[in-house]
Amino acid sequence: MFEKLFKPSGTLLEVFERQFEEENGTLVYRRYGKGAAYRTTDTHKDELVSNYIREYRKNYILTIILSLLAFGCVIPLIIVGVRPEGASFSIPFGALFVLIVAWFTWANHRAVARPEQVFSRNAPISSALSPEEARYRKLSQISYGSLALAPLFGLLMVFTMSDKFDVWSGYGRAIWLVPIGFALLSAVQALRKYKADHRLT
């Protein structure tokens, strides 16, 4: 139960594991999927995934502790009769929680790239990807289904806002620029993905 509670989400695990890919029949590690390629094995990959999960769990627990400590600072104020309200309270404490979240994001970013410290002791089998190659590879990992959802999300926004104002007349019609923009963006990305898929095959 403890391991499931503090385990990174499937999306975060996918981001980490995406750094490992087969190239020319060899499993390699590339930092963020675009760094220099280092030869590895499935067993070593599983070990590094376990290490990432442990580090994520430590960072997550520490974030909870820091948040509780920040919240605990309010208790003495309540005890002495000071009401925690107004800008003099919300601004500093809001900034504190933003810093805690920022630290957790930074710590997880470092945890994702941690394997490079292990692999950097060895010579890479190939150099880092060029910006163009990295862009093509990233596009190849996006599904056409995900691109198709973007315009639907825009339409959902229009449907939600239609309860607040008329989206069929006057300035309200400007809201339709959202799904139209999403549709155009998805079309451009789909075309780029098509080129990327055919370039990599």
List keywords for this structure.
201 residues, mainly alpha, 2 domains, 9 helices, 3 strands, 66% helix, flat
Residue fraction in strands:
under 5%
Could you estimate the helical fraction of the residues in percent? 55-70%
Largest sheet: 3 strands, antiparallel
Order of helices and strands: HHEEEHHHHHHH
The count of helical stretches stands at 9
With strands numbered from the N-terminus, the spatial order across the biggest sheet is 1-2-3
Number of domains: 2
Radius of gyration: 23 Å
- Give the class from helix and strand content and strand pairing: mainly alpha
Task: Walk me through what this model shows.
The chain has 201 residues and is mostly helical. It folds into two domains: 2-119; 131-200. The chain has nine helices and three strands. The protein has helices spanning 2-5, 10-17, 42-72, 74-79, 87-113, 115-119, 131-140, 144-161, 177-200, and strands at residues 20-23, 26-29, 38-39. A three-stranded antiparallel β-sheet has the order 1-2-3. A hairpin with a 2-residue loop joins strand 1 and strand 2. Helix 3 runs antiparallel to helix 5 and helix 7 packs across helix 9. It is flat. The model has no long low-confidence stretch (mean pLDDT 82).
